[in-house]
Amino acid sequence: MTSNTAPESVKQAIAPKRTRNYRALAFQGYLIAATIGLAVLFVLVWNVPYFTIDLTVTRAIQTIAWPWFALLMNVISFPGNAPQSFILVLLLAALIFVVGLRWEAVCSLLAGAGGSGLDTLAKLIVHRARPAADIVHVVQQVNGYSFPSGHVVFYSSFLGFLMFLTYTLLKERVVWRTILMVVLAFFVATVGASRIYLGAHWFSDVLGAYLLGSMCLAGCVYVYRWGKPRFFTHQPAAPEQPTAAQQPSRSAAKQP
Among residues of the chain, what percentage have pLDDT more than 70? Predict the structure, then answer.
């Protein structure tokens, strides 16, 4: 006799339908709100060098005189500078591939390259000048356009995707998962303040970058979930597991 009951471990791995529906609605709602917000920012910054809130936030952050704060801001921004940002993406993607996470490595490259590509395209469209040294303190002069912040887009999309992988794949290693999540989240959350403190971007540049980066991250997660059960069900590490709906049919197929 064939059982129609899925294994308990599979049941526990799948959230109730109502919970999944709420999550889907929240996710879709955020994407709509982020798209609208980014579109509004595009229009507002098109021909405006900076807003009053940009100047207010920059001066507020740059007045912080703690001895270690300037060093911290530079350290946070360092991985996002070229060429180390490209090296970081290639090295981490290669490491992920070597441990057997083939599809995860591909999507990590997509998150890194996709974020940088969208940032470059947005800059070419808006053509916004960076903060001038006669208005705010510019620690290091940076070439190129200002909107959106490339560092913030890169951290949000690439490091954000690494956070997603950490949360998804390290469920049995709670301590390591917590440490990695905290470190990655710290860099994502503070890189915006770092770029403002260093005089490289305005607050509105950072805000637009977080919106764009989160949308890129959402796209990468979607591609990851779409491709994993189709092409990478037998990779060396973390292969795609059958869903509860698939388990009974596979069991039934084995019955004489």
Answer: 87
CB neighbourhood size of 227 (10 A): 15
Tokens in use for 130? 């960076």
SS3 state at 232: coil
Residue 64 DSSP SS3: coil
Token code pair at residue 24: 């889907």
Tokens matching residue 249:
């049919």
d(CA 113, CA 89): 8
CA gyration radius, the chain: 22
Q: Which of 212, 211, 213, 193 is nearest to 203 (CA)?
A: 193
Residue 236 phi, psi (nearest 5): -55, -40
Which residues have a Cβ under 8 Å from the Cβ of 14 and sit 6 or more positions away? 243, 244
Taking only the tens place, the pLDDT of each residue in 103-162 is: 999 999 999 999 999 999 999 999 999 999 989 999 888 888 999 999 999 999 999 999
